Amino acid sequence: MSDSNPFAGLDLNSLMEQAQAMQQQVMAAQLALAERTVDGTVGDGLVSVTLNGNGELVRVKIRSNSFDPADTEDLEDLILAAYRDARARADAMAAQALDPLAERLDLETGPGLGVLDIAPDPADGTPGQGRPTLGF
Q1: Residue ranges per domain, the chain?
Q2: Which CATH superfamily hosts domain 29-135?
Q3: What's the per-residue H, E or C state across the chain?
Q4: Does the pTM exceed 0.85?
Q5: What is the pLDDT of residues 38-72, one digit of tens each?
């Protein structure tokens, strides 16, 4: 009878050590991202927002005397557009920082064995905002 164990010959202790090291690297990368910021601007600078690398809103700037206080609808739309612009930039920055770690994990463990999973934020369920986990 042939051995059908897919883990035969695999050093699980070594694999767990590699997974823990990778998790620490991901957490360090996320902490570094939290310290970096990106801006999203619309309306030729009428509205700009700043997010950190984890996508958290840090600052909103509105050019003074550029809107009628009685008509807030345009301002609301510009804030939303600026946020989306900044969020796309923050996501790109995060991907640039985290994708090499995910690729390295796949190369080290082999296809199907290592999966980098950024758990949902427990507070609101937003994907990619929670604690990084390594799933097998």
Answers
A1: 29-135
A2: Nucleoid-associated protein YbaB-like domain (3.30.1310.10)
A3: CCCCCCCCCCCHHHHHHHHHHHHHHHHHHHHHHHHCEEEEEECCCCEEEEEECCCCEEEEEECCCCCCCCCCHHHHHHHHHHHHHHHHHHHHHHHHHHHHHHHHHHHHHCCCCCEEEECCCCCCCCCCCCCEEEEC
A4: no
A5: 999 998 899 999 999 888 999 999 999 888 888 89
